[in-house]
Amino acid sequence: MLHFIHGTLAKLTGEYAVIDCCGAGFKILISTATCAKIADKAGKDVLLYTYMSVSEDNISLHGFAEEEELELFIKLISVSGIGPKAATAILGALTPDTLRSAVAHNDARTIAQAPGVGLKTAQKLIIELKDKIAAGEAELPQAASPADNQKVLQVVDTLAVYGFARNQVTEAVKKLDSSLPLEELIAQTLRILGKEKGR
Description:
Layout: E1 4-12, E2 16-21, E3 24-30, H1 32-37, E4 45-54, E5 59-64, H2 67-76, H3 84-93, H4 96-104, H5 108-111, H6 119-134, H7 146-161, H8 166-173, H9 182-197
Parallel strand pairs: 3-5
Antiparallel strand pairs: 1-2, 1-4, 2-3, 4-5
Helix pairs in contact: 2-3, 4-6, 4-7, 7-8, 7-9, 8-9
């Protein structure tokens, strides 16, 4: 079984990447999130963690920029009614932390934002995965409402893009009122991180 493929990114579309590995071009289906993460690597080395999906009439490779996305993908397709296409759509619409938080807080509406995933399917996913992906993973600050919790996750995701460690951002934002507007929440989190860095 292929755990990852490492080679040159020969082609990239919104749906798949082609990686040239020792002269062989591997076509790998990807989520929009993974596409965004490797968008600047055309003609450069890239590594994707992979899952091979085998059915009666099709064999396909699914790739992820991060190993935790692959692990969540495998858990998602273990839910009856969630195939590789739906799992990829979910991981394209939600970050791993957002998905785990939505499951932990029974927030089916957030999961249902993924293309092709209805509210009933999201509710079923929560029931089947609550014990598998919520407990013991990525402890986030408890917010007063799903909407506030979503803002907290956005703060973590936004500042992680700028190089801040997720655990540091999480600890900083725990000290704040999650009902603040998103922009203010980000600004105050940055102030806390700045003070800690200056110590």
